[in-house]
Amino acid sequence: MKIALMDSGIGLLPAAATVHRLRPDADLVLSSDPDSMPWGPRTPEDVTQRALACVRAAAAHRPDALIVACNTASVHALPALRAELEPGLPVIGTVPAIKPAAAGGGPVAIWATPATTGSPYQRRLISDYADGVTVTEVACPGLAEAVQWADSAAIDAAVADAAARTPRDIRALVLGCTHYELVADRIRAAVQPADAPPIALHASAGAVVAQALRRIGATPTPSGEAGPSALSDLPRGRLTVLLSGREAAMPEAALAYAEGRLLAAEPLARG
Questions:
Q1: Are the beta carbons of 67 and 15 closer than 8 angstroms?
Q2: Active site residue 54
Q3: Could you count the other beta carbons within 10 Å of the beta carbon of residue 199?
Q4: Catalytic residue among 177, 183, 209, 242, which?
Q5: 99: how many CB neighbours lie within 10 A of its CB?
Q6: What pTM did the predictor assign?
Q7: Quick one: three-class SS letters along the chain?
Q8: Which of 32, 84, 106, 115 is deepest in the core (most CB within 10 A)?
Q9: Which residues form the signal peptide (predicted)?
Q10: Rg, Å, the chain Cα set
Q11: Which residue is catalytic, options 28, 47, 70, 109?
């Protein structure tokens, strides 16, 4: 089995690591476009063309499914990607986890890029899935870029800025950019009041990977009952990294995160 994932940058790592944990035997193709990152400020037409270039590079490796592990690409390019690749290649987009976050009754905050915050797309999701729930949209300028380059000081500054504009009484926080999942612990520490119940963080990687496996009729292996010993007996998949269409090693910045280190570790990288 081979699963491809695309993103503007290393925001695809959480979903890719989730695939690897559920199906360590799966080959992974990671296709991103760091040469043009960030995509948020670009026009929808530009995002679509860049997303198409990423998925075409990935599709050349003949995957069984392709995960669009990027909120911006899912917003602007998903119809074009599906029109080109489906039905031969299932394409699974990423949707912010607003529905499960709102199910707890709120208040809810959504952290997203400035381009996504307040967009018709995000407002429609709030209207559809969080009607009657207090929702605060929080733009996070510079956070995705800081995560992309593993700039710890810039991450702390962007997280602190967004946390200062996040209501203290929220019960749930939606991570509306896949890059943010890589620093979820730092975000949680910044928004969690010491005198309040734990805030629930809602990310997208788990749900999008589950949907991808369903689309191709695959199940997690090993099952939860198999135990750690079964993991050591499974064959490991091969990792292919494509940076702006060029086959390359895992970017150095990716190794700053547990997800990147997991995927770059032998024997996955060697295949």
A1: yes
A2: no
A3: 19
A4: 177
A5: 15
A6: 0.91
A7: CEEEEEECCHHHHHHHHHHHHHCCCCEEEEEECHHHCCCCCCCHHHHHHHHHHHHHHHHCCCCCEEEECCHHHHHHCHHHHHHHHCCCCCEECCCCCHHHHHCCCCCEEEEECCCCCCCHHHHHHHHHHCCCCCEEEEECCCHHHHHHCCCHHHHHHHHHHHHHCCCCCCCEEEECCHHHHHHHHHHHHHHCCCCCCCCEEECCHHHHHHHHHHHCCCCCCCCCCCCHHHHHHCCCCCEEEEECCEEECCCHHHHHCHHHHHHHCCCCCCC
A8: 32
A9: none
A10: 18
A11: 70
Give me the count of residues in the chain: 271
Token pair belonging to 154: 């810039």
